[in-house]
Amino acid sequence: MTTHLEPVTFGERALRIEDVLALANRQAPTQLQGDAAYRQRIAKGAQFLDSLLDKEGVIYGVTTGYGDSCVVAVPLQHVEALPRHLYTFHGCGLGKLLDAQATRAVLAARLQSLCHGVSGVRVELLERLQAFLEHDVLPLIPEEGSVGASGDLTPLSYVAATLSGEREVMFRGERRTAADVHRELNWEPLVLRPKEALALMNGTAVMTGLACLAFARADYLLRLATRITAMNVVALQGNPEHFDERLFAAKPHPGQMQVAAWLRKDLAIDAPTAPLHRLQDRYSLRCAPHVLGVLADSLNWLRSFIEIELNSANDNPIIDAEEERVLHGGHFYGGHIAFAMDSLKTLVANVADLLDRQLALLVDVRYNHGLPSNLSGAPAERAMINHGFKAVQIGTSAWTAEALKNTMPASVFSRSTECHNQDKVSMGTIAARDAIRVLELTEQVAAATLLAANQGVWLRAQAEDARPLPQALAAMHEELAKDFPPVIEDRALEGELRLCLQRIAEQHWRLHA
Fold first, then answer.
1. What pLDDT does residue 54 have?
2. pTM of the model
3. What is the CATH number of the domain that holds 25?
4. Are 199 and 238 part of one and the same domain?
5. 52 lies in a domain?
6. Residues 428 and 454 grouped into a single domain
C-alpha cells in the first residue's frame, strides 16, 4: 500500500475509509482543524452546557443518572464526579484486546464524530485524542462487551479512562499504565467535564472503526479472488468464453461485468477463442463473476453506510449550541453498521466457498484435466509417497466451513438489557467482529488456493504443448515463485501459508488497479 502523503485533518471535512486505513496503518500524520472560527464553535457547545448548569437545567447524563437511571436527579455538587463514575463502572470488558491497527481506527472514528461540535466537549479533549493518535498512545480495549446501543459503551470506557490517566495503554511496543505515559509525555491527564465521558463512550466508534478495516480487506480480497480464479482457469484448462463481454451485456449487473472484465484482462482475451472440447466448466469457474460480482456491487452501498456513520455525530444527547437546545435521541444505535457487517460477512464467506470449490477441482484427478493427484510435483517413481496439497485442501475445507458458520446475522439477536431501557439493540460490534473473523478465515482460504493455483500453473507449464502465460498471470507467477517454489517433495507448508497471509494483509500485489 502507498503512503498517505497528506495529513488527515479532523474537523469539518468528511473522512473516507482510506483516511482511517492510513491512520490505522501509521501511514499518515494527523492534525486538528486549527482556524479560530472552528475552535470557537467547538467551545460554544461546552459553554452552553455550563450555562445550563448555572440555571440548574435537566440534561441527561449530566444532571441525571445513566440509562434507566435517567429519572434519578444528580445534585449539582455531584455533577463533576459523574463522568468518572461512568467510565469506571463500565470497566468490565472481556475477551481479547483489540490490536493496534483496530485501536487506531477506533480512536479516529471517535475523534471524527466529536469534531462535529454537537457533543458538548472542549477543544482540549479533541486535542488530546488527536495527540493519542499522533504519538501512538493506544488504550488497551477488550473487544467484548458491547451490544451496539447505547453505542460501544464498555469498550469506549477504556478510551475515556486512559485519557484521564487511568488503566493501561500500549506505547512504543510496551504495555504501560496510562499515568506513566502521561508523565513521560509531560501531559496532564484530563479531568473529564460534564457530558465528556458520555460523549466519548455513547457512540459507535468501535464498530465503525472495525467496519472501515473490514471494508478495505474485502475490497482487496475481491481483486485477489479474481486473480486466483484467472490462474485456476489456466491450471484447469477452463473455457474463457464464460467471461465474454457480449455474454455479460445480456445480464448487466455492474459488479459481475467488472469481474468478467478483470478476468478477460488477466487471461488476455480480446477476441472470441477457439472452441474447446468442453463447452461448460463447473460453476466455481463459470459462475465466478456472478459470485464475486455480488461483493463488487455491494461495495458502494457498504461504503456509503460506513462513511455516513463515520462522519456523523452518534452520541446522545446532541448539544445544539446555536439554537440553545439539548436534543435527546438515539444516534448511538448502530443499525446501519450492523446490517453492513452482517451482509459483508455473508458476501465474503461466499468468496471462501468459491475458492474452496476451485481448490477441490485442482487436487482431484477426476476434475483437474490431467494434473497430478493433489498437485504433487514429484517424479513418477516417488509419486506414491508424496501427497502435495492434500492436507492443504482439507484445511481449506475447515476454514471455509467456519467462515460459513459465522455468517449467522448478529443483528437478529437483539436482547433487552439495562433494566429494559436498552430494550432494542443493534449488536453492530458483534457483527463487525464476526466480519473480521470471516475475513481472516477467507484470507486463509485465499492463501491456500493461491499457492495451489500457482502450483497448478507451474505443472501445466511443464507440458510440451504448454502455451505462454498471459502477461498479468506470468508476472504474478514469477513474483510468487520468489517466495513459494514448486512443491516437488512433500514439505510442511505452514510457513509459506503464513507468509502468503502476510502478503495479503500488506496488500502486496497490485491487482486490477
1. 77
2. 0.95
3. 1.10.275.10
4. no
5. yes
6. yes
- Which of the residues 60, 66, 87, 158 is marked catalytic? 60
Cell representation of residue 119: 457533543
Domain end point (choices 183, 203, 223) = 203
Q: Is 55 exposed, middle or buried (0-12, 13-18, 19+ CB in 10 A)?
A: exposed
Domain stop point among 184, 203, 222 = 203
* Catalytic site includes residue 66: no
> Are 163 and 125 a contacting pair, CB within 8 Å?
yes
Residue 192 gets which letter from DSSP?
P
All residues at 6 or more sequence positions from 281 whose CB lies less than 8 Å from its CB, including other chains: 233, 236, 238, 239, 242
Grid look-up 467471461 returns: 243
Domain containing residue 428: CATH number:
1.20.200.10
**CA-CA distances (angstroms) from residue 143 to 92, 120, 202, 341, 488?**
11, 27, 16, 16, 43
- Reported as a single tens digit per residue, the pLDDT across 311-339 is 999 998 999 999 999 898 999 999 999 99
- Amino acid, single-letter form, for residue 132: F
Phi, psi of 144 (to 5 degrees): -105, 150
Quickly count: other Cβ atoms within 10 Å of residue 300's Cβ: 10
Type and span of the H or E element at 326: strand 325-327
Q: In angstroms, rounded to a whole number, what is the distance separating the alpha carbons of residues 513 and 271?
A: 22
The predicted-structure confidence for 22-74, as pLDDT tens digits, reads as follows: 999 999 999 999 999 999 999 999 999 888 877 766 776 677 766 666 666 77
* Interatomic CA distance for residues 426 and 446, integer angstroms: 31
Q: Classify strands 30-32 and 8-10 as parallel, antiparallel or unpaired.
A: parallel
Cell reading at 443: 484470507
Q: Is residue 476 assigned to a domain?
A: yes
3-state secondary structure of 175: strand
The length of the chain is: 513
Asked whether residue 312 is domain-assigned, the answer is no
Give the C-alpha separation, 69 to 153, whole Å. 16
Please give the residue range of the domain that contains residue 112.
Answer: 8-203
Which H or E element spans position 79? helix 76-79
What pLDDT was estimated at residue 274?
60
**Bridge pairing between strands 8-10 and 168-171:** unpaired
